[in-house]
Amino acid sequence: MAFFGSAFTSSKVVVGHVPHQVAAALRFGGGALILVLILAVAARGGRIGSFSWRDAVRAGLVGLLGVFAYNVFFFWGLSLAPSIDGSIIVPVLSPVLTTGALLVMGRETASTARVVGLVLGVAGAVVFFLGIGDGGGGVSGKRLLGDAVYLLGAAAWAAYSITSKRVLAGMEPLRATTYGTVAGALGLVVLAVPSVPDVDWGGLSGGVWANVVYLAIGPTAIAYLCFYRGLRSVSPSTATVVMFAVPVFGVTSSGIFLDESFTAVQVVGGVIMLVGALLAVTQGRFLRRPGGRTAAAPAAAAPAVAAPRDAGAS
User: Where's the EamA domain (predicted)?
Assistant: First the structure.
């Protein structure tokens, strides 16, 4: 989550010098190459199972959600709105959307706390959007559009979190992460091709390239691998709870390195979204009093995940 949070700031630097399609392709193209090299070394050492076209296709399709679709919206949003907005909207609303989808599909229970939390999450998002100001004045149409695109990114990440759970059943996290990242990166490269001639490659500074390298290694190769590894052991809604840490890192880095800020109304909207997300995902357990009972019944147990074929896989 520390890597994911910093990605908003670092990616904003890159989209300031290249089209957002090219920025996404550079980040995930580099990340995919790193993961392929790691996978090749692990496979040669016999630490993971054998190649399977079925696994490759399944993980690749999920990668089109979590890598391609999500990052199309992510980098598009960065080209329109401050990174600090995305670091609030995406990680806070993703758990709300994930929980709502699981309730609709009947995979988790609908308690009063969850319903209230979902309503608060939506209300907080409305307040956040209404608080968008252009230098403290009126509403900025460009920033409003960017925040709406961030919302689409949150929806894509929620879908990715839910579908990834099944993909991880019986597949090593490294292999699943690599296949998904490669598939998503290929889609991003194809999308970026028409914009490549518009880039002044010789004019890109060392700082821009340093951010590209950092994005490929940290927020992509390492962060996605960690997310897959954790998702193998917990439910999708539980996995998204840790995303509440993203705004802390995202807001801090955006404030320090980009000198970005948001309005007081947006702060209120962000707090409402956060409370709603906590209620929806935890069913009010964070309100438990010492020695007391929770406000809602515990969630239904998440379905067990099959153990990897290679018991020695890490």
Answer: 2-129, 145-281
Dist CA 24 CA 224 (whole Å):
15
Count of CB atoms situated within 10 Å of the CB of 306: 11
Share in percent of the chain as helix, strand, coil (round to 5): 75, 0, 25
The whole-model pTM stands at: 0.76
pLDDT digits 0-9 by tens, 221-250: 898 888 777 877 777 666 666 777 788 788
Alpha carbon 293 to its chain's center: 32
| Distance of alpha carbon 100 from alpha carbon 119, whole angstroms | 10
Q: Which amino acid is at 251?
A: V
pLDDT tens digits, 129-171:
777 664 444 456 788 899 899 999 999 988 988 887 777 677 8
Which are the contacts of 140, defined by CB distance < 8 A and separation ≥ 6? 132, 133, 134
